[in-house]
Amino acid sequence: MPSEITNLTREIVALWRRFDWLPEWAVIALVLLVFVGGGWLTHKIAFAILRRLVKDKDVFWRGVVERARLKLRILIIIIGVGIGVTVSPMDPGPSADIRDVLVFLFILTLGWLASGVLDMWSVMHLKRYNVAVEDNLLARKHLTQTRILQRVAKVILFIVTVGLALMTISGFRQWGVSLLASAGVVGIIAGLALQPILTNMVAGIQIALTQPIRIDDAVIVEGEWGNVEEITSTYVVVKIWDWRRMVLPLSYFITTPFQNWTRENARLIGSAFFYVDYEAPIDRLRAAFEGIVRASKHWDGDVQVMQVTDITERVLQVRCLASARNAGIAFDLRCEIREKLMAFMRDECREALPRDRLEWPQGEERP
After folding, report:
1. CA–CA distance, 1 with 103 (Å, rounded to integer)
2. Do the beta carbons of residue 34 and residue 81 sit within 8 Å?
3. Cα–Cα dist 32/27, whole Å
4. For residues 280 and 349, is the Cβ–Cβ distance under 8 A?
5. Geometric angle at alpha carbon 269, from 214 and 314, rounded to 5°
6. Residues 115, 157: contact at Cβ < 8 Å?
7. Average pLDDT, integer, range 76-81
8. Distance (Å, rounded) from C-alpha 60 to C-alpha 259?
9. 208: which residues sit within 8 A by CB, 6+ positions away?
10. How far apart are CA 270 and CA 326, in angstroms?
11. Residue 361 gets which letter from DSSP?
12. 201-216 pLDDT, tens per residue?
């Protein structure tokens, strides 16, 4: 402790000992009560001034002040208690220990305050983008970037805050240095223990910057189709089409190939395959297919193609392509094409249905 503070403490202690008609604990309690009350009153006045200053500002600053109300009160009360134990007739040793604890709590509260400001900035940034609209590519891009970077920043802020706080306590100063500098035995052990978390944090930063996936992207992972429901600082939750959830580490999307059906935009081309007889009238089937697609509410008015894509030893393979606004609508459109075109072949074009043919050699009696 600086000599000036020690000398001032001794002088104040000597001053308080003049009031020896009160027990020492009562004097200490009275001093602390006065300074805590003064801190509470100071907070009230300061907060009223801050509210008036930001009254005409934008929502961000008003939100920051409201979110910081409790944290500022704790900070001011910590300062008040620190001044109180310094000027009270408490012995210098216990007084110094209490001040060390108060500095520790002060740094933690500052980190808490910074975290609240970060949360408020994220909320205000995301308010400009509406994910509920149909063409939400830009909104999903910013939502993904903001959520991932927010979580990574919180982890870094937590490590820095705890490291600085630990450095204020003599018995734990090396722990704080190791946490901040990743040096020493503690830093090595922590680095090894946190290797999977750090790997996923780095992967999260890569995903936030390059964006191979975004919130609500339609993806195929591990042979399953679903939508990206949540991206945390360490894992991704994919909502499978049947409402199951697949949880994958962030590093999966950096190291493993996967399909993203909405990487550039939500529009997709859906396909439906049919197997028809050699004598099937392709022109009639194509006309029926085009009529089905044009009448469908799922079609986006762009792509509609029907082609013979393969010939096997028994049938022709016909591929029908049609585009839709997004993956879910494309799936419904494919099902509608299959149902209605199959009904057309059954009711109006039975010659298109696959058939087996048997030919008997001439001169042999058929059974």
Report:
1. 13
2. no
3. 9
4. yes
5. 135
6. yes
7. 77
8. 38
9. 144, 145, 148, 149, 152
10. 10
11. P
12. 677 777 777 788 888 8
308-343 CB burial, b ≥16 within 10 A, e <16: eeeeeeebbebebbbbbbbbebbbebbebbeebbee
Cα 184 to its chain centre, rounded Å, is 33
pLDDT of residue 181: 58
Q: Could you read off the pLDDT of 314-366 as tens digits, one per residue? A: 899 999 999 998 878 888 999 999 999 999 999 999 999 998 877 766 655 55
Crossing angle of the two packed helices 69-87 and 59-67, in degrees rounded to 10: 40
pLDDT greater at residue 292 or residue 147: 292
Residues 6+ apart with CB under 8 A from 25: none
Q: What is the DSSP letter of 171?
A: G
Task: Go through the chain and tell me how many residues it has.
Answer: 367
In this model, does residue 188 exceed pLDDT 80? no
Phi, psi angle pair for 49, to nearest 5°: -65, -45
Q: How many CA atoms lie within 13 A of 183 on its CB side?
A: 5
Q: Rounded to 5 degrees, what angle do the CA atoms 64, 67, 72 make?
A: 95
Would the CA dihedral through 334, 335, 337, 338 be positive or negative? Answer: positive
Residue 184: predicted pLDDT: 42
pTM, 2 dp: 0.47
What percentage of the chain's residues is helix, strand, coil (to nearest 5)? 60, 15, 25
CA 203/CA 214 separation, integer angstroms: 14
The Cα 213–Cα 237 span in angstroms is 12
Are the C-beta atoms of 68 and 109 separated by less than 8 Å? no
8 A C-beta contact, residue 184 and residue 230: no
Residue 317 · residue 277 · CB < 8 Å: no
Per-residue pLDDT at 254 exceeds 80: yes
CA 277 to chain centre: 52
